[in-house]
Amino acid sequence: MTKYYDFRKEINIKDLDEIIKNFNDNGVVIFPTETVFGIGGNAFSNEVINRIYDIKQRPISKNVNIMVGNKKQIEEYAYVNEKEKKIIEKYMPGEITIILKKKKELNSYAFDNDTIGIRIPNNNIMLKILSKLEFPIVATSANISGDGNYNYEDIKKHFDGKVDAIINGVVGSNTPSTIVKVVNNNIEVLRQGKIVIDSELIK
After folding, report:
1. What is this structure's pTM?
2. What is the mean pLDDT of residues 52-77?
3. Is 197 part of any domain?
């Protein structure tokens, strides 16, 4: 049974505690971000990852990213060089995902062998949740794989009864995050979103 929460006007603390418990109990949750609605759960739980891939009908060949609550946490899960640090300092939290060399803690098939995409959402609901969790969350867009971005009504239609919780909240640009990777000290844009990297400022 899916539990619904409405945080469009305010964050209810009791409900927030329930959602955090859901994450801690290996639940799968749909949540708003400043880009699109996301679906996620404990990034260290293969049970959670398997459910997300199954719910989304996502091919296992397609990797997913993680979300963390602050910049310091990024270096718990990935190695960061000087140029990457400049990108993180300038654009995070925000609508950007950076691909970094992965540390060994994250070993699921959902992640590349050598790299990991990491994002800090600029969304008050998710930042409050992430600040209370002791693990990153695996996160991808809340849709059936191959579909476009879903609104709240689409999400209820496709995911009711399949996820543990759905949080209704204000979604921002409705455009997926920009994805960047530093290769040979050059910034490569793998997916262009709302944020445009100013290479002149990241030297």
Report:
1. 0.94
2. 96
3. no
